[in-house]
């Protein structure tokens, strides 16, 4: 005892109780590989090895909205999508996306949201998937649920996207377009969960996971 205070020996960091280490939060801290709100990424269909893509080419049938396709090239700038919440305040930048969470996917180059509705897709006669809206604002048919295992959507996970309004899964089955988008694959909605609707996060700018939305350093 010195001056009424007990002096404890300095312990190596590894021996300190978890409760004394800042930031550990008893298992609440997300894994470093969690996909986060505000991140910009490409999505790879694991069955067909093509990335989710859009461009200023409209469907010639169905809704006539901006088409969504799958492309093999990994370096196409039209394959970037930004992760956003169902509403602007429901998915703050840097917050890890939970399994079962409702999100929007906004096409970076055109500002339109991934969308589906009760129109037949041009090639397979499944449900048409389009890009819709202006400057990231569309309607209620832009909302998808992330289906994965565990607590958070991890970058290494293969996940599904289930549409809230029509309950179809974002899918590719391999049908290819001709002119003017020759070789690109049809993207559509399917009512059943199967191996055609698994997607994995690939290239992009990922916001560092944090339970504190103010911490949003880029990896």
From TrEMBL:
Pfam families cross-referenced by the UniProt entry: MIR (PF02815)
Keyword Signal: yes
Signal peptide: 1-27
Keywords: Repeat, Signal
Subcellular location: Secreted
Gene from which the chain derives: Sdf2l1
Keyword Repeat: yes
PANTHER family in alphabetical order: STROMAL CELL-DERIVED FACTOR 2-LIKE PROTEIN, STROMAL CELL-DERIVED FACTOR 2-LIKE PROTEIN 1
Native organism taxonomy: Eukaryota, Metazoa, Chordata, Craniata, Vertebrata
Name of the protein in its database record: SDF2L protein
Cellular component aspect of the GO annotation: endoplasmic reticulum; extracellular region; protein-containing complex
Annotated organism of origin: Leptocoma aspasia
Domain MIR: 32-86, 94-149, 150-204
InterPro entries hit by this protein: MIR_dom_sf, MIR_motif
